[in-house]
Amino acid sequence: MHNFFKILVLGISINSINCRSPINCTKNFITYKEPIFHNNEKISLRTDGIYISENGRASFFLYNNGRVKIHSPFFDTLQQELWATPQKVVKEMQNDWEFKQKERWGDYSIKGNEITIQHFNRNNEEVCKRSVFEEKGRILNDSTIEIYSEYSYWWKDKLPALYTPCILKFYKTDIKSDSTIAWFINKNWYKKELDNSRR
Questions:
Q1: For residue 125, with 0-12 CB atoms within 10 Å meaning exposed, 13-18 middle and 19 or more buried, which class applies?
Q2: pTM attached to this predicted model
Q3: By C-alpha distance, which of 103, 109, 136 is closest to 121?
Q4: With contact defined as beta carbons under 8 Å apart, do 32 and 59 qualify?
Q5: 192: left (phi over 0), alpha (psi -120 to 50) or beta
Q6: How many CA atoms lie within 13 A of 35 on its CB side?
């Protein structure tokens, strides 16, 4: 009977941790340690609006300070009849409760015409409350990005390439999330190793 209670308490404890995990899995979040641009020539990506997928559900904001706010993290592709128009995405964005929240933030880095985006998800039911996701892509011009791979460090779920690259086009908008509210910007580990180009 004594062993039964030990097992019961252990099971309840594990379940409680999974429901309200205090753990942020930040180990693989490294982009913030790197320069925003890895060479002297800056590729001028537009940052005065939102990038919206032409063939799926993804959308995000880029900021001059190297930060990224993921509005929709789904870089898969959908049948054309399921695509949302840019006007609909922008309208829904303003009503989305996460739009002004501290979640779904990260940083990006550019090497030549390649862009790496790292950001955190939020899931209270996992051991890691926040874990790192990474997308890699090509900059086609100042207002078009092609994401060709994505990776989850928590699930170790990597496709060598997306079946169909996710093409995101820029749309100007006067409304953006405030990049100073990201949950990690005042954490000691972030401030300590933040690259000077991001300060």
A1: exposed
A2: 0.83
A3: 103
A4: no
A5: alpha
A6: 8
Q: What stretch of H or E contains 67? A: strand 67-72
Token pair recorded at residue 35 = 């320069």
For residues 104 and 98, the answer to whether their CB atoms sit within 8 Å is yes
Environment class of 6 (CB within 10 Å of its CB; exposed 0-12, middle 13-18, buried 19+): exposed
In this prediction, residues 80-108 reach a mean pLDDT of 82
Longest dimension (CA), the chain: 70
The whole-number pLDDT of residue 152 equals 87
What's the mean pLDDT in 15-19?
42
- 3-class DSSP assignment, residue 127: coil
